[in-house]
Amino acid sequence: MRLLIAGPTASGKTALAIDVARRLGGVVVNGDSMQVYRDLSILTARPTPEEQAGVEHLMFGTVDAAENFSVGRWLAGVAAILAEETRPLIFCGGTGLYFSALTQGVSDIPAVPEAVRAQIRAELAGLAPHQMWARLKAADPATAARLRPSDPQRVTRALEVFAATGRSLAGFQDARQAPLLAPGTWRGVFLAVEREALYRRIDARFSAMIDAGALEEVRALAARGLDPALPAMRAHGVPGLIAHLAGETTLDEAIARGQADTRRYVKRQFTWARHQLKGFGWAPDAGAARAALLG
Questions:
Q1: CA-CA distance, 242 to 233, in Å (whole number)?
Q2: Amino acid 173: pLDDT
Q3: Model-level pTM greater than 0.85?
């Protein structure tokens, strides 16, 4: 049996996963699209070395920020783990897409050649998100209808796929491969902490991240001069802190922006779980989640 712990940011998933892994002699597998990046250990709340002590953690901090990590690459890593690991596996993270792909299958979307990716990103440079979305609507209305105009990362991805294949991303998404985890082989829980308490945790944690060195972490990332459209460059807190380092805003304003962006993301995490995480039970706290997982 594989155990899956999903939930919003700052809900206590990490501590719960480590506790369960220790009880079972298991391994924690990363299910968070930002915690894969080695450049952002503090700002993504990656488990610290002290937290990881005595429990093996896989797929955490293994990818360079210059790379565009994807759900397909994550699934390939998980497939290798499933083929080799005999210990209990505890998947933990806040990226709902990873969990739905793992348990429901994923669309077989062809890889986009780097030359096409670079061309599309050059063409989109300087456009506002709604202008990018309008371009997608003209080329691929079916996919545009599924995406928010305020989500430039996914809009860019859809335009790249269309440019590379001449086909709608929505068409690929409607044809799914079989899931890596078949029904009956896993048990999952969504840690649905009360919303206002969660917002207070988010605000306090972001401030604590600054105290722990998040600004210096972002300073080093900004110094690399990476494409701002890369996922790591769009991690919650990064754009605001980069703006502060450039003298465009105060640190307090950057902190407030990071906190607000994270709170908005939590709303999307709940929405995704409600509509896409089939087979997951909902738990109001870590104790209830632990009981549901361990039965």
A1: 9
A2: 76
A3: no
Tell me the C-alpha distance between 20 and 36, whole Å.
21
Q: Count CB atoms within 10 A of the CB of residue 211.
A: 9
pLDDT in tens, 220-261: 999 999 999 899 999 999 999 999 999 999 999 999 999 999
Residue 92 backbone phi and psi in degrees, to 5: -140, 130
Is residue 294 within 8 A of residue 288, CB to CB? The reply is no
What element of type H or E holds 1?
none
Please state, as a whole number, how many other Cβ atoms lie within 10 Å of the Cβ of residue 80: 12
Closest CA to 217 of 9, 43, 65: 43
Cα–Cα separations (whole angstroms), residue 280 to 17, 62, 98, 186, 194: 16, 28, 13, 10, 17
Q: Which residues contact 76 (CB under 8 A, 6 or more apart)?
A: none
For residue 111, the one-letter residue type is A
Sign, CA torsion 12/18/24/26: positive
Check residue 233 and report its DSSP letter.
Answer: G
Per-residue pLDDT reduced to its tens digit, 130-179: 999 999 999 999 999 999 999 998 999 999 999 999 999 988 877 778 89
CA distances from residue 273 to 16, 195, 277 in whole angstroms, order as listed: 18, 14, 5
Q: How many angstroms separate the CA atoms of 78 and 180, rounded? A: 8
Cβ neighbour number for residue 129 with a 10 Å cutoff: 16
Task: Return the amino acid letter for 253.
Answer: E
Q: Can you name the residues that pair with 186 across neighbouring β-strands?
A: 2
Structural domains in the chain, CATH included, are: 2-106+177-294 (3.40.50.300), 114-173 (1.10.20.140)
How many residues in total does the chain contain? 295
Give just the sign of the alpha carbon dihedral 35, 87, 19, 93.
positive
